[in-house]
Amino acid sequence: MSTRDVPITGEPIRLGQFLKLADLADNGSHAKDLIDAEEVTVNGEVEIRRGRQLADGDVVAVGNETARVSLEH
Asked: Which Pfam families has this protein been placed in (predicted)?
């Protein structure tokens, strides 16, 4: 399973926003549903807070898709 870097312009970014940006969720409602169903992990641990603040290097996974927060410098 490969992890792709998803660039963001500023920290922090909320989990719900990042799911959409990384194409792990179709929209905000889908992101909420994934989180509510406990299908989202951050750095290997299930995350149930849509507003969780993500920082550079955090790895988010949904199913077998993973994306890493990559702060643009």
From this structure: S4_2
Grouping H, G, I as helix, E, B as strand and the rest as coil, residue 52 is coil
Q: State which H helix or E strand residue 3 sits in.
A: strand 3-8
Residue-number span of the structural domain to which 21 is assigned: 4-71
pTM strictly above 0.90: yes
CB atoms within 10 A of CB 64: 6
Classify strands 59-62 and 65-71 as parallel, antiparallel or unpaired.
antiparallel
- Give the pLDDT confidence of 37-72 residue by residue, as tens digits: 999 999 999 999 999 999 999 999 999 999 999 988
Residue 45's domain is classified under what CATH number? 3.10.290.10
